[in-house]
Automatic annotation (TrEMBL):
Broad enzyme group: oxidoreductase
TauD/TfdA-like domain: residues covered: 24-301
Name listed for the protein in its UniProt record: TauD/TfdA family dioxygenase
Molecular function per GO: dioxygenase activity
Taxon lineage: Bacteria, Bacillati, Actinomycetota, Actinomycetes, Pseudonocardiales
Amino acid sequence: MESPSSTEVPALEMPAGRHAGVPWAELRETVTQHGAVIVRGLEPRQRGDAVELCQSLPVPLMAEREPFAPRDRHAEGVYSSSKWPPDQPMCMHHEVSYALEFPALLIFLCVTAPATGGATAVADSPSVLAALPRDLVERFERDGWMLERTYNGDVGVSVAEAFGTSDRGAVEAYCRANAIDFEWRPDGVLRTRQLRPAVVRHPVTGARCWFNQIAFLNEWTMAAEVRTYLVDLYGAESLPFTTRFGDGTPIPEEVVTTINGVYDEHTVSHRWRAGDVMIVDNIRTSHSTQPYTGDREIVVAMAEPVRQADFAGPLATPSI
């Protein structure tokens, strides 16, 4: 992705049978340069082949924490794509950008391509940042963004799925160690709030990147009927998740619309072919999934764990 006007993700063709000899240094450099790259010739047509390929690469894999949608775990750091309604788009986001530790690199491997649709789209974060209204960026840079979650148990993942345990003490210890404020309501429901930077500098290139899930996890990105249903069911202050300005102020619908509109202007789509591999710089590049029909199986590896503290300034822990 050399410019926002690009219409395709750069592709590299590799000789068949290079599974055991992937030129990783070359691929990694290309991903840093372009933000994402398609690799053809590796041909992981079975789930086991995809998992084996991920494990063979000279890159550390990491376990996911604090997910929003359930996944199947195939191996340490290797998962199914998020379980999401196939008729609903998954909007632009950076994987786990609300956590203190997240993958710098994502590897997507297409085992089964959908009948129609289902493209994984990407957008260049420095370009998105440059196109957003300056006053909006300045506010988010100054105050950060806030994620609120209420683990009601009916929508999204459970406490055990999010934290890897249902033990209250262990959950609380995780929250304290990861700058997450929390409270247990009298009915036993967990509510959390975490403050994170909206803009970071890329750890390799130094480029300023719009790196967050402000729009994706905001209530106004939901379909109108879904938001209305959830507000009626839980109340406006206890939605399964939403985002706010860093000072706790609600984010207006028009701000979310503006952010998503800028993403749309910088979106580059890739329609999957079985055997394709896409490697994405998770800091430089956001990604999304388009609606689809038919079967679709994408294996996802989360790699190169990094911590926000290594290249983003600290923000105070919010208080519920």
